[in-house]
Amino acid sequence: MKAKAIQLLNYSGFSWAVPIVKLASGEDIKQQFTILWKRIGMPFCAIVLFLFLWSVAAKNVQTSLGVLPGPVMVYHQANVLWQEHMGERTKAREFYARQDARNTAILQQNPDATIKTVSYPGKATYIDQIITSLKTVFMGFVIASLIALPIGILCGSSKNVMTALNPIIQVLKPVSPLAWLPIVTMVISAVYTTNNGWFEKSFIISALTVSLCSLWPTLLNTAMGVASVNTDYINVARVLQLSPFKKTTKVVLPATLPLIFTGLRISLGVGWMVLIAAEMLAQNPGLGKFVWDEFQNGSSDSLARIMVAVITIGLIGFMLDQLMVALQRLVSFE
Amino acid sequence: MAILELKNVCKGYGEGNERTSVLKDINLSINEGEFVAIVGFSGTGKTTLINLMNGLIYPDQGEVLFKGQQVQGPSHDRGVIFQNYSLLPWFTVTQNIALGVKSVYPSWSQSEVDAHVSRFIEMVNLTPARNKRPKELSGGMRQRVAVARSLSMQPEMLLMDEPLGALDALTRGNLQDEILQIWNQNRCTALLITNDVDEGIYMADRIIPLTTGPDATLGPEFNIQIERPRDKTEMNSSDEFKKVRNELMTYLMDMGASRKQAGAKEYSLPQLSPVMPRNMQRRNRKAG
Prior knowledge:
The complex is a heterodimer of chains A (334) and B (288).
Chain A: H1 2-11, H2 18-24, H3 29-59, E1 62-63, E2 66-67, H4 71-109, H5 126-157, H6 159-172, H7 177-191, H8 201-227, H9 231-239, H10 244-282, H11 287-297, H12 302-331
Antiparallel strand pairs in A: 1-2
Chain B: E1 2-13, E2 20-31, E3 35-39, H1 46-54, E4 61-66, E5 69-70, E6 78-81, H2 93-104, H3 110-123, H4 139-152, E7 157-161, H5 169-186, E8 189-194, H6 197-203, E9 206-209, E10 222-223, H7 232-236, H8 239-263, H9 277-287
């Protein structure tokens, strides 16, 4: 039970919490407290110091929107954003309740009447923006992986393909999302004309921009991994005379998975970074648009709200990374 | 009739001036049902030789014939046991063995495969560890899995590349017996590559030394006429064993010595005598 809990924590990237579990189970208290101090105490001190320096420095920076906000103001704005969200949710619930009541009343009078259901027209809250951003980045990430993995496997298994594609990959790899965005926008506007309501146009534009920028690490890592599979394993596949398909699925891919996941992890990180820029320019709802709108707003709260966004972006990026690390540990055979 | 034949086989690596010829003029003929051992120092091209036989690499000159046909790549008829076991770490013992079985008998149902795999796991005494992964097994157990994997494909010939090289002496002795016993049951042809003369004599009908490289080739062969089943303790006092062992050791030692002489250079050393405390005093007294 305890061993399982510790293993779970280690796998999920919460290894700093392991001493707490050990303390709870009554292991040597002094030793565990030392570890706890090292794992949690030290980072905690660093954070406190950082917040202190931030608040001191911020007071001295005068902008056109007032003094640069310190940690306290940012915390206050975070609360305000949360309250706004909860407020909107209550309003939405009330709206739907009213609508349902109205519709049932109409139906009672005349069962054949056509009724209208309208979705709540209120504005997207901060939490909604976060969810949209996450959806967009996952969409982009999935598209990127679907493109990068097959091409990566192809590049890794054939030197000729790698030599052929290498210049294209190397040239496209360093291109900034801001350069891709206008092209993607024009192409999507021209191609995506069906209006089936599945996806917003701006959503696809941001997602594709994310894909274009984030597929390279996965592609290169997969290619490198496939090309450098231990010769012993390849020899086994040859001696057992596995078919090319079985050789790929049973030998090459399992051997490459750790490297592929490292690539996917970098890709997701890049994608998340690119997304904010893409959303800002594409005006796709999401954290990027939130930052841009607040910047355009220019109220006295704007800077604090943007800082909330900065911290949120950082935290979510960190969480996504931890998620990939956990996945990587799960599939790794070593 | 010879099941495996090597005719004037040469193999080298590299190009131009960098080229080293590893094997030269290898002639070998192995009969059906025979157990042949090849002994040699490490780095003489033993693994190259076995890879030529199993079809992972091709000779630069000469030909490798299996049942009269030129070897065109690996085949299920020739099972291989690699030096470093080469088990797939992401599979369990059962899965590792089943992978080969499914490849040889693609038409078998899952239950047929399972039964077949279980039989061979049983044969190498690994039934309790059947669902473990290679990293959870000891070296000896891993080698047993490798043996079971090769045998489960029911090859006509078994090629073993220093299969017990990485094991401790006790496990090694046990596995030697196990392999012999299994070989005795299946009576396939076996070729063992080893660096242990005693192991070769104990297991094989015929033992052939590989000379040191570059340009390694096979030396004179030694027939071992000791009745099977052989007993290790009895063998130590057997005259036949002693004779073969002495001859073989002498041959290998002489070859090793000649290799060293060819490589040794004469260095002119400066004349130095150590300075001892007593000498110092005497010298000081003389000077004073």
